Amino acid sequence: MMKEDRGWEEDEGGKGSPAATDEATVDEKVTDTKWFFLLSMMQSFVNGKGLLGLAFFTGSPIWISHGD
Description:
By secondary structure, this protein is α+β, with helices and mostly antiparallel strands. It has helices at 32-40, 50-58; strands at 8-10, 16-18. InterPro entries: MYC/MYB_N. It holds the Pfam family bHLH-MYC_N.
């Protein structure tokens, strides 16, 4: 099975890092899934605290109403 090259490669620790490219221009297209993954790596949530922590801790979806 071949991996699709999107300009990112995994290092020995399994963490993604930008592939060696021309630093002046990067024409890579990052999918929504990849972007979500990259941004999620910078976040942490306490189990049971806040909306995201509660959803993760209970393993259940949370319905938000009147989110104005």
